[in-house]
Amino acid sequence: MNYSSVRFVLSRILQICSALFLLPIIVALFYGETVPALKSFGVVAAVIFLTASLTSLHRPVKLRLRASEGMVITFLTWVLISAASACAFMLAGEIPGFVEAFFESASGFTTTGSTIIQDVESVSHFVLFWRSFTHFVGGMGVLVFALIISSGSADSVNIMKAEMPGPSFGKLTARLRTTALALYAIYFVMTLVTIFLLYLGKMPLFDAIIHGLGAAGTGGFSSKNASIGYYNSSYINWVLTIAMLLFGVNFQIYFVSLTRGIRQALKSEELRWYLGIYLTVSLLVFLNNLRLGVSPAFSFEHSFFTVSSLMSTTGYAMVDFTLWPLVSQLLLLLVMMIGGSAGSTAGGLKVSRFAVYIKSMREQINKTREPRHVWSVRMDGEILSDAAKHSVLRYLCIYLMFLVVGTLLVSFDSSDLMTSFSAAVTALNNVGPGLGAAGPASNFHQFNDFTKIVLSFLMIAGRLELLPVLLFFSPKSWKATS
Q: How many other C-beta atoms can be found within 10 angstroms of the C-beta atom of residue 465?
């Protein structure tokens, strides 16, 4: 571990991130909430900036970051920025306890959307804005944002790899900073379009901003206790259904469609898998929910919205889907775990990994049946190497380990297996609502502090794709190097 380089880079990142804490103060000016905003977010921004400035005064002679050091910096950034946000919540008087405040902050930055706030409509406007803005920044990545602002370096790719979701990372342009800028530009424009469309649907501007940021980051924090169900608008429901689905697509596909044409972008096999899974599960849930005796139009709208919300790991809700038939609930649990595409703002295992799992299973069956025949796994027409397949399969083993341990730890605070398992699933996959007592009509305030710490840890681990967390807690990672 090159401690001096880690200290310097981490300090510079926190310097940049401190500016984000000033944005809620601007919102507070419009709603007469300036004093509490200054006493909370203003103080936290100043403390972060001054502390980071002092620790970055001495620049290392050789500024060099290996992949493991980039992952450690990534994990530390997410923990520290969540802790700083928790302090702001406490100073604002909205969330008194640190554990609950940290849970809310981690849920925001990891775009999970689980909340401990019981009456969200009583929360100050500047705090509501900050909760949803953390989705926007966390969706594409805190460190990707910092990379755009800073000058960047050749080693920045090791940080970006650690934060960008998915089994692989590819540069869209020759320069890494240009890649980050291109992704954020597409992200920003799509967010503005979503906010504008919601506003056209007669959603108040502030609410449109809150829900637009939530949809963009696939987070799901709302300004209403009833979430999207409050508006009772089919137009708003379908705008968000499409928006959540689009934000679950790999952003490289949008870049390719702009530079090489839509036909080239549609050649993506992951995109076809993503849309295929979404349409198949939505139709199955729709048909199964007809057993509830509701109208076909009602069932169609709610089924497609909910599957889009949970597969994109956004977590917005129109109805309490824990009251749906068990088959529908299990299908929803499946898409929670699969999640969206690699390189999107969505969480989950990722569709590309799921496709490799299915193809690897088929390959093994074929090899067993015809051992003399040469079989292979292809993605986008290219044969995956054994190393690539093993890497994806190893990730599944690590994922299941986190899920089993997480479920076990949560079960100490719950006697309901569905609640314990779905709470771990929704945290690890950054979804938001789960099933059982962790459903959309419930609240995570009910869990004790230990469980909230476990779930917060799972949120960060899931958002960072597990490996940065394992490397951080590995003793070998902390051996000093030059």
A: 24
